[in-house]
Amino acid sequence: MAEKQLTFKENEIIQILNKVYLNFKDGQFKEASTLLEKALEIDFESTDVTNALKCANFWLEREDRLTAISGAYEKGEYYLNQWKVFSGFISRMEHLSERCLFNTKYYIFGRALDHYLTLYNESDLSDPEILFRIGRCHKCQGNYENAIRFLELASQYRREDAAILAELADCYSLVNEDRAAKVFFREAFFLDPQAVELSYLESPMILRLMEKLKDRFGETGGEIQDWIPVYGAIFGLFNVKRELRPLELGKLKQAIYQLERELGGQRGGRLTPRLINHYFWLVDHYLNSGEDRQKIEEVLAKIKELDPEIYSEYVA
């Protein structure tokens, strides 16, 4: 089949967009906006042009506001916070160019990284908050090796920080270290699902799971975070498990007792998926440690009583 020949107008638009996307990577949003205004005169119906112009104007406005912010940490936080706003903004666009998105992302996280590195080089090198943010910025720029290095350093200072572990899991997934990714995701969503910032995750395995849950619950946030570890276990995503140490087992049982008391036999809200996930961990521990089958059946009975549908999917 012969390839479609591009018209002169289409070629002009492509050439302008190529320049625009390079401008985005360098943070030259004003120059990009000027080019895009010219492109609209050539083809005012081009989705790529109108989308790119919306992105350029969004960041032009944000860059203007940056002049009023002082301090490296505050500027770094500003870029990261505005990226979350931008993520919501572009979610309403149709057919946004991947190159447009990646180049914008590369610049924004590069600027945030510069500010965090300033703090890293000038102050306490063991600040886990700064290490975490440096790791996140490297990841969002596609520099996974440096991201893992900084995130592992951060996790040494905060071994039970769900946000750090989730970012580390995300990096491992993106370099195809699936076993490590599953271990860290499982730990992160057990510790505190609400601390995991879903908007930053890029792992294909997690994104697919999120889409399934959106179809099931019709939600884009909130309780979905608490259901991720439950369905992650049911769908076999969180299938790399370990035997708990005695102290961890004691904490798990205490947490289950507290959640049962808070829930009071009722269903709904965030406590239900959290309690179910705790039950899953207890079952996994009993299986890994060769515990008596009776104890396993007792936990399964509690899951069935709390949510028969989840129980059926879990034991299927």
Overall description:
The chain is an all-alpha fold and 316 residues long. The protein has two domains: 8-43 and 57-91 and 99-202, Tetratricopeptide repeat domain (Serine Threonine Protein Phosphatase 5, Tetratricopeptide repeat, Alpha Horseshoe); 246-315. It is 74% helix and 0% strand. It is built from 15 helices and no strands. It has helices at 8-26, 29-42, 47-66, 72-90, 98-122, 128-140, 144-157, 162-174, 178-191, 204-217, 224-234, 246-263, 271-289, 293-306, 308-315. Helix 1 packs parallel to helix 3 (47-66) and helix 1 runs parallel beside helix 5. The longest helix is centred in the middle third of the chain and has 25 residues, at 98-122. It is elongated. The termini are far apart.
Keywords:
316 residues; 74% helix; elongated
Please give the share of residues in helix: over 70%
| Contiguous helical run count | 15
Cα shape: elongated
Name the poorly predicted regions.
none
CATH superfamily of the largest domain: Tetratricopeptide repeat domain
What is the CATH first-level class name of the largest domain? Mainly Alpha
Counting DSSP E segments of at least 2 residues, the number of strands comes to: 0
Biggest beta sheet attributes = none
* Chain-averaged pLDDT: 93
Reported CATH architecture of the largest domain: Alpha Horseshoe
CATH topology of the largest domain: Serine Threonine Protein Phosphatase 5, Tetratricopeptide repeat
Order of helices and strands: HHHHHHHHHHHHHHH
- Please indicate the count of domains: 2
Distance between the termini: 48 Å
Broad structural category: mainly alpha
